[in-house]
Amino acid sequence: METKGEEIEMKRGGERASSAQTEEEGQRPPRNEEWRISSPIPKKQRIIQQHEARASESNVNNGDRSISFTLTDPDLLDCPVCAQNLNIPVFQCRNGHLACSSCRVKLGNKCPCSSPFGKGRCQAVEKILESVKISCRNRDYGCTETVIFCKKHDHEEMCIHGPCSCPLPDCDFIDSSKNLYLHFSTKHSESAKSFRYGKHFSIALDVQQEYLILQEEKGGTIFVLNNWVEYLGNVINVSCIAPSAAKLEFCYDLTARSTGSSVYTKLLSFTEFVPAWVVLEHCNLKRFLVVPRDFVGLDGHLKLELCIWEP
């Protein structure tokens, strides 16, 4: 029995020695202990973690500390007085109410809550305005710019991707100018007179006809010849369907000839850009040609010649 006991003791000692040796050599513990320590990560979760780790490492290497978030209340960064986008400087009254610079002046430096604004500015909100980037409102029409929130209004005033609407009264199509030109070519080609840049062409315009739509043959740009009747005669000009901030200017030469004589009147000018053309609203345009009443022919038409040049 003593021998057997010694053998048992020696075996247990050997197991302890073997276990100690396993720990010293850094070998993995038996499989059943491994499963008790931690469960294996599912493959899909492991892939997601690897992707996030690579993205985080990439941001660190690029020095990118920005984060994305969703603003659930879009009015949060608007002036509570005028409801326009806040811009720097932002002033704060003693009760914590905000106001933009122009509203502070209009209110006589006094908040509607009767607390004075003074010279106190809300630096926390100003920091947010300087840090938050937002997409242009014309994103759906082709603008890919993201701008600092406090510069959003300035950018959108000059954005060349503003939406344009179909000039036909019974069509409600609205899209980028490029898509509008394609729409008109495919859907309303018979409603426009085609022309080419740099080529003079004749127009017989009914004296009471309010407008004539023109479309350039190659680029598809849409123009409108506007006509309205005044006491002295007909007032005529040309506008271009394009965003108000469009940078290209189209020069045009418009001539009206008197029937049966060599007398004529002429206008050399630039088209004005109109993103949403509406009948009779073109009367507000600044440049126009006045055609005397006696230029009207016996058939009730005006004889016009027009040439539009590409920028």
From TrEMBL:
Q: Which enzyme class, named as a word?
A: transferase
Q: What GO terms are given for molecular function?
A: ubiquitin protein ligase activity; zinc ion binding
Output the Gene3D superfamilies linked to this UniProt entry. Answer: Zinc/RING finger domain, C3HC4 (zinc finger)
- Which reactions appear under catalytic activity for this entry? S-ubiquitinyl-[E2 ubiquitin-conjugating enzyme]-L-cysteine + [acceptor protein]-L-lysine = [E2 ubiquitin-conjugating enzyme]-L-cysteine + N(6)-ubiquitinyl-[acceptor protein]-L-lysine
Basic and acidic residues bias: start-end ranges:
1-15, 25-36
Q: Which UniProt keywords apply?
A: Metal-binding, Transferase, Ubl conjugation pathway, Zinc, Zinc-finger
Name a biological process GO annotation.
Answer: protein ubiquitination
Q: Where is the SIAH-type domain?
A: 131-189
EC id: 2.3.2.27
Highest rank taxon of the organism: Eukaryota
Renumbered to this chain, region (Disordered) spans 1-39
Could you tell me which InterPro entries the record lists for this protein?
Sina-like_RING (IPR049548), SINL_plant (IPR044286), Znf_RING/FYVE/PHD (IPR013083), Znf_SIAH (IPR013010)
Q: Its pathway?
A: Protein modification; protein ubiquitination
Q: What does this protein do?
A: E3 ubiquitin-protein ligase that mediates ubiquitination and subsequent proteasomal degradation of target proteins. E3 ubiquitin ligases accept ubiquitin from an E2 ubiquitin-conjugating enzyme in the form of a thioester and then directly transfers the ubiquitin to targeted substrates. It probably triggers the ubiquitin-mediated degradation of different substrates.
Q: Which family does it belong to?
A: Belongs to the SINA (Seven in absentia) family.
Give the protein's recorded name: RING-type E3 ubiquitin transferase
**What is the species listed in this Swiss-Prot or TrEMBL entry?**
Rhododendron simsii (Sims's rhododendron)
Species classification: Eukaryota, Viridiplantae, Streptophyta, Embryophyta, Tracheophyta
